Automatic annotation (TrEMBL):
This is Serine hydrolase domain-containing protein. Residues 15-212 form the Serine hydrolase domain. It comes from the Eukaryota.
Length: 239
């Protein structure tokens, strides 16, 4: 999962996409890394993945306590039926600061709460309400995602306009047939221009990739690598 630009004679091999990975509610970057590491090496060897912990310690019981040791983290908190949000702006500032100090990053990968956040970031950047000090996110990988539930109540305010128009950011969506967020995940995918959607038979989890899904993921990242290579060539031509 490392990133380099290799030179073979005069030929430049595109660098691996750098991906900031945002874990689920009351889990951790370490836990997400452990789950993603089960994906085929054919995929992982061509990605530079960075797993970030949420800014806030878990404020309650974690659903993964039986499987993974603490600590657990949250990105932000919601209350009163998603009509109130706490620490959302602080979360955005935390992610932006990490991206400034450790980037640049090309894309985001998010699971569950991390997917809610990741999916809203391109629209928030477009609206100028968040992550304005870093480059725009070039692609997304959304696993068990949905639109932030509070958006129907106009909360959190920074994300209200995130889906006001179709999101023109290449996106790969994993939707579980037995996931309680299946319908919400489909609605989210429809908010993007030409989303790539992979259905799997499991629930609210990081899916194992069968042969067909692996082929789809490889094709998606091949397109991303070509896009990044074309952008790099355009920049060099201007220098």
């Amino acid at each position: 999962m490392s990133s380099e630009t290799h030179r073979t004679g005069k030929e430049n091999v595109p660098k691996n996409p750098r991906v900031l990975c945002l874990h689920g509610f009351r889990t951790s970057g370490r836990i997400l890394r452990a789950l993603i590491s089960k994906w085929p090496e054919t995929i992982l060897r061509n990605l530079d993945l960075d797993f970030l912990d949420g800014p806030f310690p878990a404020t309650g019981k974690s659903d993964v306590e039986r499987f993974f040791d603490p600590p657990y983290y949250e990105w932000y908190q919601a209350g009163k039926g998603f009509t109130e949000y706490r620490n959302f702006e602080e979360c955005l500032a935390y992610v932006e600061d990490y991206m400034i100090k450790n980037g640049p990053f090309d894309g985001l990968l998010g699971f569950s709460q991390g997917a809610f956040l990741s999916a809203a970031i391109p629209g928030m950047q477009e609206e100028g309400t968040a992550l304005t000090k870093v480059a725009k996110v070039k692609f997304l990988v959304i696993i068990s995602g949905a639109k932030i539930p509070g958006l129907v109540f106009g909360q959190p305010k920074a994300a209200v306009g995130a889906f006001s128009s179709p999101v023109r950011c290449p996106s790969l969506h994993f939707i579980g047939e037995r996931d309680f967020l299946k319908t919400d995940g489909e609605v989210l995918a429809e908010s993007f221009v030409e989303p790539v959607v992979i259905y799997h038979s499991s629930g609210h989890t990081i899916p194992k990739l069968e042969a067909k899904a692996e082929e789809t993921v490889l094709s998606f990242f091949q397109r991303i690598r070509q896009m990044l290579s074309d952008e790099s060539s355009s920049v060099r031509s201007l220098m």
